[in-house]
Amino acid sequence: MFVDEAKIHVKAGDGGAGCVSFRREKYIPKGGPDGGDGGDGGSVIFVSDPNKNTLLDFAGRHHWLAQRGQSGMGKKMYGKGGEDLIVPVPPGTMVFDIDKDMLIADLDQPEKRVVIAKGGHGGRGNWHFKSSTNQTPRYAEPGTEGGERNLRLELKLIADVGLVGLPNAGKSTLLSVISVARPKIADNPFTTMTPQLGIAGLSGERRIVIADIPGLIEGAQHGAGLGHAFLKHIERTKIIVHMLDLYPMDGSKPADNYRKIRGELEAFSPELAQKHELIAANKIDLASDDEALDELMNALPEKEILAISGASHQGLDQLLGTLWEALHPQREE
Question: Which of 39, 46, 136, 266 has its CA 20 to 30 A from that of 190?
């Protein structure tokens, strides 16, 4: 199950109370104060875990509480500090404080650590308060409260390349043959119901992370279809690949379909529409001649168009090579 939004409550541990204690030993009837300090409370720390790609862990658990510090003891013994609560989240998780309506953390890199709620400080024991005028202080500080927040978590997947296109354009098939991802593939319009991540392997240990989102339809930015809810997952990508079916079953023109998807991207985010893009003209294996491909190229002369087939694997090496060069131009010099 894919979950990309969640609301939770986090509470760091309170600090332990300082101790009121006096030294009591044989032959020392009037020992001075020796109450120890309380331990600090544990903090709530988010860590981006590359093995996670969903916020599913937060769907059934809304309260996250770190351990409180223990109270101080006699003989100036400190209370044990509370353990930090380490919360793994998928890379790409954005953390918003609901009450302040602000972004407080963006875990946009693997293994990134952010203290979300700071543990409270332990209170000082009574020995701290001994003075020339008060030799037997009977006061110790309580610990301070740990931080507390109501949070909204939003996941934006981190990938190098985002695949966009109309339903049944062949995105799932492409992802299945160029990466270790194995998305469900069928002929119904919305086979891909949630974003899929795949890692394409090239020679020399080179890797490209690719995100496939549910197929877009016209009006997606207004909530039509499935893809509108997932457009945010390609906002972090460096390149957009437009998957076009060269032979749409509804008889539509591939160039018109490109313009529809392009319009949806522009309406959703002007920045998204400015990303480097290329067109993958799919199902070239069905062609008896170059008429459909030539028509597409003539209709979009300024666009970079590669002819491919996810089914027969034609043109896939060229596609991956072109993507790698676009992602790492300096490495190819």
Answer: 266
Q: Which helix (H) or strand (E) holds 216?
A: none
Spatial CA neighbour of 306 closest among 244, 226, 260, 237: 244
Let me know: does 38 contact 70? Beta carbons within 8 Å: yes
Q: Is 236 exposed, middle or buried (0-12, 13-18, 19+ CB in 10 A)?
A: middle
CA angle 93/96/101 to nearest 5° reads: 155
Query: Would you say the C-alpha torsion 175, 177, 182, 187 has a positive or negative sign?
Result: positive
Let me know: does 246 contact 284? Beta carbons within 8 Å.
yes
Angle, CA of 57, 161 and 108, to the nearest 5°: 45
199 and 142 within one domain: no
For residues 219-229, average pLDDT: 50
For the chain, how many structural domains are there in total? 2
The predicted model scores a pTM of 0.75
Report DSSP letters for 25-71, one per residue.
BTTBTT--B-PPPPPPPPPEEEEE-TT----GGGTS--EEEPPPPPP
When pLDDT is cut at 50, 70 and 90, the band that residue 180 belongs to is low
Under a CB-based contact definition with an 8 Å cutoff, are residues 18 and 142 in contact? Answer: yes
Query: What is the span of the domain harbouring residue 124?
Result: 1-155
